[in-house]
């Protein structure tokens, strides 16, 4: 099932059996090397995270977990701590083409809950803080994700914007391997 970051931002994280509130979704941690969504940070205590492997399901009104002990500190889960150290956010990051054309910043992103992978980024330029000229870019067009920018293939700007359309959908031309600078 496809979800967007804005859809789940602020959703309560609840235990499936007791319906007890464990926190709220504050941020998603995305591995910039492969686009995998590895965990959620909670709003209740930003020091706790919920690994996506422990998510039972996401409904319209909550993220459900089987075991409340699934919430942990980043230090307790080394694999996720290593992804956090890469410091490569998706939401709010600036997006450029390989030839350094500025496309805007990520105002939302979509992911598949079956496999927990990034599928698309929603990019827009801002004028006086208001998003304009939105582009929906397939994750296969991403070349590299760094802490201060995301680089996409030049082909994404060659797609013509349709008249009277508020979004441009960029085709999936070929798979790409996500990279970070080492």
Q: What would your notes on this structure say?
A:
With 182 residues, the chain is mainly beta. The protein has 2 domains: 84 residues, SH3 type barrels; 76 residues, PRC-barrel domain (SH3 type barrels), CATH 2.30.30.240. The protein contains 2 helices and 14 strands. Strands 1, 8, 9, 10, 11, 12, 13 and 14 form an 8-stranded mixed sheet that branches. It has a 6-stranded mixed sheet with strand order 5-4-3-2-7-6. The chain starts with a strand and ends in a 13-residue tail after the last strand.
What is the domain total for the residues? 2
Quote the average pLDDT: 84
**Alpha carbon gap, first and last residue:** 33 Å
Measured on Cα atoms, how large is the radius of gyration? Answer: 17 Å
What is the approximate shape?
Answer: globular
Number of strands: 14
Helix content: under 10%
Number of helical segments?
Answer: 2
In the CATH hierarchy, what is the superfamily of the largest domain?
PRC-barrel domain
Instruction: Work out the strand percent.
Output: 35-45%
Largest sheet: 8 strands, mixed
Structural class: mainly beta
